[in-house]
Amino acid sequence: MKPKRDVTIYDIARKLELSSATVSRGLQDHPAINKNTRKRIQEAARELGYRHNNFASNLRKQKTNTIGVMVHELNSNFITSVLSGIEKITAEAGYDLIIAHSSESYTKEAANALNLFHKRVDGLIASLAFDTTSLEHFKPYEEKGIPVIFFDRVEEQGDSTKVIIDNYAAGYQATKHLIDQGCERIVLVTANLQRNVYAQRHRGYEHALRDSNIPYSKNLVLIKDLSEQCGVEAAMQILSMKPRPDGAFITNDFSAAVCMQTLKEHGINIPKDIAVVGFNNDAISKLVEPRLTTVDYPGVNVGEIAARNLVNHLKGISDIKTTSTIIVNSELIIRKSSLKSEAK
User: pTM for this one?
Assistant: First the structure.
């Protein structure tokens, strides 16, 4: 069966014996068209099943009212909260979203960037994959004057606009808290140190140890993918260490929760035997026992700030090129998993 063709403004014009220009204006509720005529046009459009072609209309105006969002994964409470913040601001401003994810692959990220470019997005909000080392695939956006804002996973050396937290300060604060609880052998479980977020948290960890005259050991830095399996592997490595660590800073709450559970299954008391700090303030941090001390990374705020800056740029209210880095506040939330002093 042949698909039914789309109804056009010319079909409405023929039915009502009006010009196509009058029908077009009437459908847009233009005040120049008589109120009764507008009503007739809109009723005829409903009757015939007319659908406005936003895409064609916007192309004529050289814009599509769509914003591309590129994330490194979708199975993440943090990313979900960022997307929630982006959607809130863009919906209020009348923009649709096209969301793509790289599955932590530079190759897929580059393909997504090209795909969104060809879909003619008005702007782009992006967080980089683990193995992305170059921003070459964003060059077409720059050449066409299409604004791009990066968040969380960014290239710090570039002059692009970035929305991040102070990962160095967060790493320092988390580690210093463990030191203040009497921990002297602190393991860091983190991800690829080529990525800014993990490199800076690692730097904060290292400097907090140094400032407290605790020697830094590469053997206590476990580079993982921060998955569920990572939590199990980290726990097993901790159990095999001699002497065993008395503190753990794990830069992802889900991995931290799995690690804690695995340690408990092997007879380790938390926080008495090992104090644990996570990162992100995901929902799971309040569900595990003991409740997990964590760094609050306000994803909704990050999403809202990135989207608001992009929308304001597109509307000509501000220029993102005048702002290189926007720092969003984070906070250490102390719960029982790290309170070694109270567990004595």
Answer: 0.79
